Amino acid sequence: MSNLYLAVIGVGGVGTAFLSQLAALPAACRPTLVFLSRSSKQLYSQNYSAVSAADLQSSTSKLLSIPDLTQYLSSAPGKAIVVDNTSNQDVANAYPAFLRSGISVVTPNKKAFSGTLQLWTDIFSAVEQSNGKALVYHESSIGAGLPVISTLKDLIATGDRVTKISGVFSGTMSFLFNSFAPADGSGNAKWSQIVAQAKEAGYTEPDPRDDLNGLDVARKLTILARLAGLKVDGPESFPVQSLIPKALESAGSSDEFMKRLPEFDGEMEQYKEDAVKQGKVVRYVGNVDVPKGEVKVGLEFVEKGTPIASLRGSDNLIMFYTERYGANPLVIQGAGAGGDVTAMGVTGDLIKVVERLR
Amino acid sequence: MSNLYLAVIGVGGVGTAFLSQLAALPAACRPTLVFLSRSSKQLYSQNYSAVSAADLQSSTSKLLSIPDLTQYLSSAPGKAIVVDNTSNQDVANAYPAFLRSGISVVTPNKKAFSGTLQLWTDIFSAVEQSNGKALVYHESSIGAGLPVISTLKDLIATGDRVTKISGVFSGTMSFLFNSFAPADGSGNAKWSQIVAQAKEAGYTEPDPRDDLNGLDVARKLTILARLAGLKVDGPESFPVQSLIPKALESAGSSDEFMKRLPEFDGEMEQYKEDAVKQGKVVRYVGNVDVPKGEVKVGLEFVEKGTPIASLRGSDNLIMFYTERYGANPLVIQGAGAGGDVTAMGVTGDLIKVVERLR
C-alpha cells in the first residue's frame, strides 16, 4: 500500500484503548504512527519514521501548535490521518484546516459536529472539495462503537427518507431510568439514591449535573438532525429538559448538589407515578422529527413492551423510522459508552479511511 | 473519478428496486451501466457506453456465457463491478473467476457464501490476492439492508472476540411465531391457520415448506459462523430443526401440504404451552457459539421481556455477544426482507465499493 501517516491526539481512556487496538491491526491496514500527544506532552519524528507510544511520557519534543502540526502532516511523504481522541473544542476547530490540507480526520469528539453550524459546514465542504482525498469519519461521536452514523448515512445515501429518529442516547440516563422505573415495576429506590449509586459506580461524570443537564444528549441529537438534513444551529437551539432542579442549578459543588438532591425526589416520583397510571414507564428520550424540522430532548412516557421500555443496564437504543422501513423502525441497541467500545468505533473508522486512501 | 463499469445480473424484485436506487445516485458515485441481464435476455454495449434498463426487454443481443462476461468486463477501459441480484448458484460459482480477473462483486445472493467451504475460500482468497483491487460485499445476504455483516466484520477487524451470535433471521419465521405465540399471551389461532394467513399475505415462499424447512436460516447462520472464523462445511453440517412434520415431507403439492397441516397443530400447540408453563415464549432461533464451534437452528423457549420475545411483525433481530460488549449484546433489529430494503443493502455496498475503487 502507499504509505499513510498517523497522528493521534489524546491518550486518555479512549486514546489508550485505541492505541492498543491499533497495535493489533495487521500491518497492511496500519498507518505509520508519527505523532502522538497528550495535554502537555508530544512525541513525533522529524523524518516521519514510526514512534512508539511507550516513549511519550519521557518525550522532550518541542510542542507543535495546531498550525505546526498541520504543516508537519501535510509535508509527510504520503497521505496523513489525524485521530482526535479528545473532547477538545480547539482541536475540533482545526478539522477544516486539516481537511483543506489533505489530512483525513477520525474522531469520537462530538464538539466538531455539534458546535456551530459554520464549523459543520466548513468541515463537510472541505471534505467535498477534497474530492475523496481527505475524509472525515466520526462513528463514535454517537453511541460509541454502535453502527449509528454509518447506518444513517447509508439510509440517506441510498435514497431512503428518514422521517424520525428516536431513542435513548446516554448510557448514564439509560442506567438511571432503567433502575429508577424498570418496566416490571420492581424499582423502589428514590431518584436521588439512584443518582448517588450511579455516581459511586462511576456511571456519571464526576459532577452528575454534567449528565443531568441533558447537554450530552442534545449534542448527539444535533449531529443526527444535521446528518438527516436539518440545519440545526446547535444543542441550545431546541428544547432540552434539564433534570437539574432549578433551585440546584447554582448549588455550588457537586457534593452540595448531591446533598440537596433528595429534597426534589417528589418531582421525579410524580413523573414515575403518572407514567404508571397510563401503563407506561418514564424515560429520557431524544427525538428528531425530520419533516417537521423539530428536535427535542427530555422525559417521555413510553409504552411497556417497546424496545425503549425494555432497555437494560446502561444500553443505548436508536430507532430510525424511514419510508422504506415503514411502521417498524430499524433499531440499534447496545453499550454506548466505555473506552473499549468507543475506541472500536474509532479503529473501525480508521480501517475504512485506510481502505479508501490507499 | 476514474471510470468504473457496472454489470447487473437479475432484474426481479430486488433487481428492479436496485436499478431505481442506482438511477437516483449522484453521478459521482454511479458507475457506468454497461451490462444488464435477466433469465433469457441480455443488454450490453460493445464499446462500454451506458445502456438503459428500459431497453432490456427489446434487446436482441447475443447471449454472453459467464466466461464471455468475465472477458468482456475485464477488457473494460476501467475497473468493473458485477452486481448479482439473483439467487442463482451458477452465478455464485463464477465469483472467484470474476475476482481473479479484477472484477468486484456486490450481491445479496446467499448461495456464494453458504455453499461449499471451497467456494467461500476461493472467493476470499481471490479478494486477498487482488490486494484491494477486487472487492466483495454482501451485506444483504443476511437481514437485507440491516447492518449485520458490516457490524460483524468491524467487531472482528478491530480485535473484539465474538463469543455468540443469536437471533431471529427469517422474516417469515418471525411473523409466524410473533402471531402464533405473542409475548402478551393474546395469540389464539392454530399454527396451521397462521401459516395459511402468512401464505395468503405473501409472507411465505409460494410453497411454505421452503420457509418451514429452516434451510434459509441455516444458510444465514453458515455465513455468520464463517465470518466469525468457524470452518462450517455448509447448512447441512449442523442441527437444523425443520417445522415440516415428518409425514408431510413428501406430501406432494403445496396445496396438499397446507390441507394436511392442521392434523399436526397439536405438536406446535404443545411447544407453545410448554413455553408458557416456564413463563416463556417459543421462537425459531439461530445460534452460533464461537468458542464451542457450534451452530444450530430451531425452536427455543425465550424469556419474556427480552428483545427476541418482544419482536413484532416480521422483523429480524440479531444479537452479537462479544468480549467488549460483555453481558449485554450489540443488537440490530428491523425488516429483514423486501425488495426495497434488500436493494438498499446492495446499493449501500456498491457506494462503498465505488469509494474504495476510485
TrEMBL record, chains A, B:
The residues forming the signal peptide are none
| Keyword match Ribonucleoprotein | no
**Per the database record, which ranges form the Homoserine dehydrogenase catalytic domain?**
147-351
Which cofactors are required for activity? a metal cation
What range(s) does the Aspartate/homoserine dehydrogenase NAD-binding domain occupy? Answer: 10-135
Record-linked Gene3D superfamilies:
Dihydrodipicolinate Reductase, domain 2, NAD(P)-binding Rossmann-like Domain
Q: Which residues form the active site?
A: 220 (proton donor)
Source domain of life: Eukaryota
- What does the entry list as the binding residues for L-homoserine? 205
Q: Cite a single GO BP annotation.
A: homoserine biosynthetic process
Q: Which reaction does it catalyse?
A: L-homoserine + NADP(+) = L-aspartate 4-semialdehyde + NADPH + H(+)
**Which Pfam families did the record assign?**
Homoserine_dh, NAD_binding_3
Which pathway or pathways does this protein act in?
Amino-acid biosynthesis; L-methionine biosynthesis via de novo pathway; L-homoserine from L-aspartate: step 3/3; Amino-acid biosynthesis; L-threonine biosynthesis; L-threonine from L-aspartate: step 3/5
Q: What is its EC number?
A: 1.1.1.3
Which GO terms fall under molecular function for this chain's record? homoserine dehydrogenase activity; NADP binding
Binding-site positions, NADP(+): 10-15
What are the binding positions for NADPH in this chain? 86, 110
| Family according to the record | Belongs to the homoserine dehydrogenase family.
Q: What is this protein's name? A: Homoserine dehydrogenase
Query: What organism is this sequence from?
Result: Exophiala mesophila (Black yeast-like fungus)
